[in-house]
């Protein structure tokens, strides 16, 4: 009977997610035309630049202190482990299924980057609100849950736009390079980027060096500056400093400095109106993201030529292998006293291994123009399975931690 109560506690948040997702898919139908391509792009921009940063900043300023930050040190490492394990499993899946070159980045990205944003934001705090929640007082549980999932969203966002973005970018460049060699009207991409002025291409597609340019004699300082410039370009700091990352920095600075926190937080805080306004904007984040998920998944119904084995493999990686690895990692950390004793915190760490691929994968595939239709199919299949998988694993995780 206790297990059944845990199952119902885990099921309710997932049902909420399914209902709002269905509304998003309904609004994206041609008959209503409310969440078609242009509308999705504009709403996605609002979520990315306004709603997510507002949510992160408003919650971190209220929930994170120096003491809590020290206690939560394991979460960034745990999320990094999900990306590393997912990447390794994705590489094995790519080799076993012999995924086409143009889909290899997509396969790796879907296995590596999970939905650490809107799904935990909906499910974990909602679990706290259930009358049968095993995590104690509703208000205390909810406040801690929002702090945990917000930090999870922020760290996951930074990892996703560095690790997964770099993976998809690397494989997209490989595909582009191969295509350009075969195309008699274009250069191989890697050679153009290295020195476009030093090469030309004859009709057979081979690259020949026309002349050797003399290397000017430059000082060590100039060489160092040129190296630093190249490093900055390769790191692409614009990707690292996303709005969510900036919001994390601002939220943590205000949260860990008591003098600043007193300016924004509390009934007598002189700048409380700023915090209240930010919080109101952040409240729009979860429903907006979930509506976008439904509208995006609708595209998957159009179908594509992707191998069924690839889709099944990604489902197995994200919903079977990774959660089992997560249980071993988190239980091991608890056993050796690496993390503090808090069942809700343990549940959050475990939940990070059982989520479907990140919705932002569709944004990356659109950006690089690689596997957009196939990504919609993967999203549709994985999120359809997630309605069952997330409920089952949430029940198991609650049973384990309590």
TrEMBL record:
GO cellular component terms attached to this protein's record: endoplasmic reticulum membrane
Entry function: Involved in cellular auxin homeostasis by regulating auxin metabolism. Regulates intracellular auxin accumulation at the endoplasmic reticulum and thus auxin availability for nuclear auxin signaling.
Protein name as annotated: Protein PIN-LIKES 3
InterPro entries referenced in this protein's UniProt entry, alphabetically: Mem_transp_PIN-like, PILS1/3/4/5/7
Entry keywords, A to Z: Auxin signaling pathway, Endoplasmic reticulum, Membrane, Transmembrane, Transmembrane helix, Transport
Pfam families: Mem_trans
Family: Belongs to the auxin efflux carrier (TC 2.A.69.2) family.
Membrane topology: Multi-pass membrane protein
Coiled-coil region list: none
């Amino acid at each position: 009977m206790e297990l059944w109560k845990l199952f119902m506690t885990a099921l309710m948040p997932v049902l909420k997610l399914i209902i709002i997702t269905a509304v998003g898919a309904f609004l994206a139908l041609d008959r209503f035309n409310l969440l078609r391509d242009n509308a999705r792009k504009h709403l996605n921009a609002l979520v990315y630049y306004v709603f997510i940063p507002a949510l992160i900043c408003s919650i971190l300023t209220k929930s994170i202190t120096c003491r809590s930050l020290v206690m939560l040190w394991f979460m960034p490492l745990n999320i990094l482990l999900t990306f590393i394990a997912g990447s390794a499993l994705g590489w094995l899946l790519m080799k076993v299924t012999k995924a086409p070159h143009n889909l290899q980045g997509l396969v790796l990205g879907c296995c590596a980057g999970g939905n650490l944003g809107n799904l935990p934001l909906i499910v974990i705090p909602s679990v706290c609100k259930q009358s049968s929640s095993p995590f104690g007082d509703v208000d205390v549980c909810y406040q801690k849950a929002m702090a945990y999932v917000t930090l999870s969203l922020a760290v996951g966002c930074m990892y996703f736009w560095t690790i997964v973005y770099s993976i998809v970018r690397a494989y997209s460049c490989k595909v582009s390079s191969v295509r350009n060699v075969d195309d008699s009207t274009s250069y191989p991409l890697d050679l153009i980027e290295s020195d476009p002025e030093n090469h030309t291409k004859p009709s057979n597609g081979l690259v020949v060096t026309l002349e050797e340019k003399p290397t000017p004699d430059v000082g060590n300082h100039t060489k160092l500056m040129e190296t630093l410039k190249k490093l900055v370009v390769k790191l692409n700091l614009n990707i690292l400093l996303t709005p969510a990352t900036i919001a994390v920095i601002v939220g943590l600075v205000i949260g860990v400095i008591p003098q600043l926190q007193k300016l924004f937080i509390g009934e007598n805080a002189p700048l409380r109106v700023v915090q209240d306004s930010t919080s109101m904007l952040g409240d729009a984040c979860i429903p907006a993201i979930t509506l976008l998920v439904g509208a995006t998944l609708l595209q998957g119904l159009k179908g594509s030529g992707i191998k069924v084995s690839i889709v099944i493999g990604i489902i197995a990686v994200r919903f079977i292998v990774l959660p089992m690895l997560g249980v071993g990692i988190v239980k091991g950390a608890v056993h050796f006293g690496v993390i503090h004793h808090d069942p809700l915190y343990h549940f959050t760490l475990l939940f990070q291994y059982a989520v479907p691929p990140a919705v932002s994968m569709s944004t990356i595939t659109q950006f690089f123009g690689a596997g957009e239709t196939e990504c919609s199919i993967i999203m549709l299949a994985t999120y359809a399975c997630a309605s069952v998988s997330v409920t089952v694993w949430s029940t198991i995780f609650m049973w384990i931690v309590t």
